[in-house]
Amino acid sequence: MLELDGSFGEGGGQILRTSLALSLLTGKPFHLRNVRAGRAKPGLQPQHLMSVRAAATIGSAQVRGASLSSTDLVFEPGPVTAGRYRFDVGTAGATGLVLHTLYLPLALRGDAPSELILIGGTHVKASPCFHFLDLTWRRYLEAFGLRLSLTMFRPGFYPRGGGVVEVHIQPCAGLRGAMSPSRGSVTRATGFSAAAGLPESVAQRQARRAAYRLRQRGLKVELREEMWEGGPGSVLAVALDTAPAPTLFFGLGARGKPSERVADEAVDQVIAFLDADDAPVDPHSADQIVLPLALADGPSEYRVAQVTCHLTTNIAVIRCFLERDIVCEGDEGGFGWVRIA
After folding, report:
1. In the Cβ-directed half-sphere of 125, how many Cα atoms lie within 13 Å?
2. In the chain, what are the helix, strand and coil shares in percent, each to the nearest 5?
């Protein structure tokens, strides 16, 4: 049994999710101490607990310590079974992070297509929103040879949650490595400004502020305004036509937060990315694609706009399960390279 310390590196839920996925993929059991020790609320919170329970369900696993706020977990996997599953976080906990735990085991170990219904948050703080997953993350996976589809039937914002996402995952015989030296020229920004259960002026103000700043940067801008059911909540998303996958950045509304600040959150990320020495992979994708590439045939190499603690932590967890040479070059906070031999 692998002994892992959840307090190292970024000290959050990513250590748990990567460990669960790799345990199902490799058949290696693990004991994780100090679960999420680096967070204000340590231990298993609802979305993390659902990740554990969902992994145990698809992988016939034996689990000890799977309870709310638990800081000690033992996970002993069994065989992964493809099928139709429904997982309800019960809060606004991120559906995308539950998906990150499950998609690789179902694709690489399942012998048939799988369908997931995920209920919870679709646009919540500190997690990839639905549109990032659909536009950016999914396209990276397609480039590696893994096919899945995502459909959002209802958005879910903090604190209500209640969002519904359907995922179809195709079985995958094997992943292929990738080389991403540059992103190409970026001259245009597209996207949307959406408000749910809020006045239309919220979407308008977000779009107006984002368009003004993006045009100042010299980009051609096309932002549509949308009104969604549900909520309350808002989101401003900006997409860049980059290679090897489009890159989406977003800002989220919150009680008492001006619409202009929501737009600024997204645009600030766009500007930082464009200033990062032509690196094609954004900071959020950088740590999300390292796991599938570590499982791929052949070498991979990609430049990242920013080396983050999430990236280096994820690499460290992967090394615990896989005998793969993975190197991250560059200082934290600056651009760098990830090389997988």
Report:
1. 7
2. 35, 30, 35
What CATH number is attached to the domain comprising 333? 3.30.1370
Q: pLDDT digit string (tens) for 88-98?
A: 999 999 999 99
Strand partners, 307: 332
Residue 269 in domain: yes
Query: Within the chain, which residues score under 50 in pLDDT?
Result: none
Which stretches of 21-143 are assigned E, i.e. beta strand?
A: 30-33, 62-64, 73-76, 84-88, 114-120
266 and 149, same domain (yes or no): no
For residue 179, tell me if it sits in a domain.
Answer: no
Q: Does 31 qualify as catalytic in the annotation?
A: no
- Given a contact cutoff of 8 angstroms between Cβ atoms, the answer to whether 153 and 188 are in contact is no
pLDDT 10s digits, 225-266: 999 999 999 999 999 999 989 999 999 999 999 999 999 999
My answer on whether 135 and 170 are in the same domain is: yes
Predicted TM-score of the model (pTM): 0.96
Q: What is the DSSP letter of 248?
A: E
Specify the long-range contacts of residues 250-253, CB closer than 8 Å, at least 24 apart.
Answer: 250/123, 250/129, 250/131, 250/132, 251/206, 252/123, 252/124, 252/125, 252/129, 252/157, 253/157, 253/195, 253/198, 253/202, 253/206
Helices (H), strands (E): how many in the chain? 9, 16
Question: Residue 277's pLDDT is what?
Answer: 81
Range of the domain at 310: 282-341
> What is the C-alpha to C-alpha distance for residues 94 and 96, in angstroms, rounded to an integer?
5
The radius of gyration of the chain's CA atoms, rounded to the nearest angstrom, is: 19
Give the phi and the psi of residue 318 in degrees, each rounded to 5.
-60, -40
